[in-house]
Design the sequence.
């Protein structure tokens, strides 16, 4: 790939000029993307530039996934396009702007209260159920990929490694080079068992995310070593007794079922998972 | 919870026999009967038993086998011997034909088609689930059958393979991807005719597979079963199915290479619940001289008839009654034990004890392997299920 001529901000400003947008400022940068706050008239929008490498397949996957999704808890893609940067063509996405920050930001102040956890669990389960209906697995659910609207509504973002179940496996890429976070990944993702990856893999990652958010622990962590924790998940060792005890004390035993190491032992249907959170407030029955 | 009668060669009359009315349903056989016969059968069955639950199994298991009447059914693909059976597209075309043919007799249930693989690997199980989902979707889209016929995922599962550590969890995780509710589970092994399944590791894996799938919310119907159905019921199977010859044979590849239409050999067996064993005529005579037969025989009209016949001055052939005696026991036993783990355990423990006494008395049965070793294995299976969670 030829060297960039423009900085990301310069490119963002050019796109704004071309598209009739008002440039407001930079929001953040990820492994592959740089995000800017822009406006169209009075509407706040997010302009995302694909800035590193030409992971076109990844971008195409994200666009394809977002195009078929229409759900209030999944980030809305409004437009896509590309802009020339010397010899390169830089892809950009215009999405809804999410001013409420990420779940990681929220957790910096400590665990969330029970009512907030229930709301988070219900809304995100509805989101992964919607993806499952379209035979899409997100495959990278984690606190950084959960953002909030101004009204506090959680939204699932970054479908960059989502895949249609019909597509070939991306798991090896995910592990070897991708931005996916092994700490939240299911055993079947960690061991690249593509026969087992489906919406229940997202259920597992959501379970780990909610565990962090509710009780501040990874279900499989015996000590501070992240490698040790990931290793335990990959080897399908059971969740720790400490986690099970604390989850139960918090009335959240649904979490224990969500992070079962074999998919057949997790909630079998999105509706069952939803019922556990919506009707039973995190209890399994 | 119920029992299904798998129709075989010349066994359709048993479906409507009043003394065998404990069976709540029938699984049709396109191998033994033509389409026209099947249409007539369904009309007769429904007339005699209005609530009968009729299930159609298209039986495309072994392309190269003698397929009897099946070769004349419209759903049998012309290219079945040469087609790439790993192709979902090929199966999509096949399920359309199967659903088409079902419109003429409107079964209450339709098993997705399945084939016997060379190896029971993950890709095979994944394909079965895809075929099951396709069948379910096509049924849902069919104007005639969408409210008449519920789909079943047919899962042919390698029994011996389930003896491997945690294999049942891997297989269960794949099968539970199925979008429907009903799974028609068939365990495949190479056990010889008349030998009981006795690999405790494999049987434990099979029972655990049933348990995890049932606990996941699936309704499991185990097909092609014999007396080992006690294990499947203990594990949580909703329904079990058998036929008149399952006292003799299992679901093996060899089974389909035999002359299917002949119905097998005609040797009569007495099923003794106290031993969970099939014993021959001379064995019955020896056994009842020294031991009480199981109390369940009191209600079994075919047991009485057989015993009377054995004492009669002019004995008649009793092979047909031997089938009925087993079928009667099967349906009534299922109704009695339900999914009550303690009752299932009790039945097997009782058989272990009875065999112990029989061996203590140095009584031997005619068939060399009729030695009760399998009930010990079955006892171990239930003990492990009770002792250790999945």
Sequence:
């Amino acid at each position: 790939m030829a060297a960039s001529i423009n900085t990301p901000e310069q490119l963002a400003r050019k796109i704004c000029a071309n598209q009739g947008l008002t440039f407001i400022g930079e929001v953040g940068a990820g492994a592959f993307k740089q995000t800017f706050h822009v406006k169209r008239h009075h509407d706040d929008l997010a302009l995302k530039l694909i800035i590193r490498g030409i992971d076109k397949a990844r971008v195409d996957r994200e666009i394809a996934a977002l195009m078929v999704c229409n759900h209030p808890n999944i980030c809305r893609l409004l437009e896509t396009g590309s802009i020339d940067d010397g010899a390169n063509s830089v892809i950009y996405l215009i999405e809804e702007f999410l001013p409420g920050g990420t779940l990681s930001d929220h957790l910096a102040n400590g665990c969330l209260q029970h009512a907030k956890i229930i709301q988070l669990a219900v809304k995100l389960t509805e989101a992964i159920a919607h993806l499952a209906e379209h035979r899409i697995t997100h495959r990278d659910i984690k606190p950084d990929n959960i953002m909030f609207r101004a009204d506090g509504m959680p939204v699932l973002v970054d479908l960059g490694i989502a895949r249609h179940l019909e597509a070939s496996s991306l798991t090896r890429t995910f592990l070897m080079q991708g931005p996916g976070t092994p700490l939240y990944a299911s055993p079947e993702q960690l061991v690249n068992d593509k026969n087992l990856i489906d919406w229940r893999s997202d259920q597992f990652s959501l379970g780990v995310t909610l565990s962090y958010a509710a009780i501040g622990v990874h279900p499989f962590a015996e000590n501070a070593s992240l490698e040790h924790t990931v290793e335990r998940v990959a080897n399908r060792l059971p969740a720790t007794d400490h986690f099970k005890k604390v989850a139960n004390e918090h009335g959240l035993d649904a979490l224990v079922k969500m992070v079962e190491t074999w998919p057949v032992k997790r909630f079998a249907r999105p509706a069952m998972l939803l019922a556990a959170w919506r009707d039973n407030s995190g209890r399994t029955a | 919870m119920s029992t299904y009668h798998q129709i075989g060669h010349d066994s359709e009359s048993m479906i409507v026999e009043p003394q065998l009315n404990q069976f709540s349903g029938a699984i049709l056989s396109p191998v033994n009967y033509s389409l026209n016969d099947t249409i007539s059968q369904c009309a007769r069955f429904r007339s005699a038993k209005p609530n009968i639950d009729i299930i159609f199994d298209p039986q495309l298991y072994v392309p190269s086998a003698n397929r009897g009447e099946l070769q004349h059914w419209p759903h049998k693909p012309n290219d079945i011997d040469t087609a790439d059976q790993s192709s979902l597209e090929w199966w999509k075309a096949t399920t359309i034909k199967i659903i088409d043919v079902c419109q003429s007799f409107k079964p209450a249930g339709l098993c997705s088609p399945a084939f016997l693989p060379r190896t029971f690997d993950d890709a095979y199980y994944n394909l079965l689930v895809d075929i099951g989902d396709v069948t379910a979707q096509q049924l849902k889209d069919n104007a005639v059958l969408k409210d008449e016929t519920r789909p079943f995922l047919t899962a042919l599962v390698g029994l011996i393979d389930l003896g491997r550590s945690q294999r049942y969890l891997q297989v269960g995780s794949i099968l539970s991807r199925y979008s429907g509710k009903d799974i028609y589970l068939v365990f495949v092994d190479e056990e010889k005719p008349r030998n009981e399944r006795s690999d405790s590791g494999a049987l434990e894996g099979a029972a655990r597979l049933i348990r995890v799938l049932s606990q996941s919310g699936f309704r499991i119907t185990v097909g092609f079963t014999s007396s080992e159905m006690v294990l499947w019921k203990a594990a949580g199977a909703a329904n079990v199915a058998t036929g008149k010859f399952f006292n003799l044979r299992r679901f093996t590849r060899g089974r389909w290479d035999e002359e299917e239409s002949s119905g097998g050999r005609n040797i009569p067996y007495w099923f003794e619940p106290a031993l969970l064993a099939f014993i021959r005529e001379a064995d019955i005579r020896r056994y009842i001289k020294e031991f009480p037969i199981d109390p369940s025989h009191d209600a079994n009209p075919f047991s009485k008839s057989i015993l009377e016949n054995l004492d009669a001055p002019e004995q008649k052939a009793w092979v047909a009654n031997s089938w009925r005696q087993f079928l009667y026991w099967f349906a009534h036993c299922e109704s009695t034990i339900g999914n009550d783990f303690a009752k299932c355990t009790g039945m097997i423990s009782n058989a272990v004890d009875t065999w112990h006494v029989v061996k203590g008395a140095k009584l031997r049965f005619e068939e060399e392997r009729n030695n009760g070793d399998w009930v010990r294995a079955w006892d171990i299976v239930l003990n492990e299920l009770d002792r250790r969670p999945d």
